[in-house]
Write a structure and sequence with these properties.
The protein is of the alpha+beta class and about 160 residues long. The protein has two domains: about 1-75, OB fold (Dihydrolipoamide Acetyltransferase, E2P) (Beta Barrel); about 90-160, no CATH class. It is about 20% helix and about 45% strand. The protein has a five-stranded mixed β-barrel. α2 (about 100-110) runs antiparallel to α3 (about 145-155). The protein starts with a strand and ends in a 7-residue tail after the last helix. The model has no long low-confidence stretch (mean pLDDT about 90).
Length: about 160
């Protein structure tokens, strides 16, 4: 299996044969698990076994004395330099629809689809359009589910540029 996360609590050791190995916690937003880098794997990947490194670990599960851990076979450090924020999502709302209830419902829809894309609200009146950037805490992950929720709340034209 392959798991991704951040390495924490890295502990380097030397076995009785004089070979280096390490243990670490692999953590993500939901929890963590101990990963063991025995000498064969550690000799290849040891330079990447460092605190706060974002890694992908290919490992097998080990259950010993009712304790679950992972035995690392492979380790990769993903290139995160190309990972950025998604392009902004533009949502058009006629000013006449901007009631406290409608805005509250819009906030609830946005919070159920968290992500990295900014949300821009285009307030449309007869005379002009004003674009507002929504607070960063309401960034979204653009998906068909989000688009469907927005169209159901604000009408089918709310996503037109």
């Amino acid at each position: 299996m392959t798991l991704g996360g951040i390495l924490a609590s890295v502990n380097r050791r030397i076995n009785k044969n004089g070979l280096a190995w390490a243990s670490a916690q692999l953590e993500d937003l939901t929890g963590g698990i101990e990963v063991l880098f025995f000498p064969q794997a550690y000799s290849v990947y040891g330079m990447d076994v460092v605190e706060d490194a974002v890694v992908l670990v290919k490992a097998r599960v080990s259950v010993r004395d009712d304790r679950i851990s992972l035995i690392a076979n492979d380790l990769a450090v993903p290139d995160l330099s190309q990972v950025g924020v998604a392009k902004p999502l533009a949502v058009s709302i006629p000013t006449r629809m901007c009631t406290p209830d409608k805005i509250g419902a819009l906030k609830r829809v946005l919070t159920t689809h968290p992500g990295t894309a900014d949300v821009h609200i285009k307030l449309v009146s007869n005379r002009k359009t004003t674009t507002l950037k929504v607070d960063d805490s309401l960034r979204v992950s653009p998906s068909s589910a989000l688009m469907g929720d927005l169209k159901a709340l604000l009408g089918p034209g709310c996503l037109a540029s």
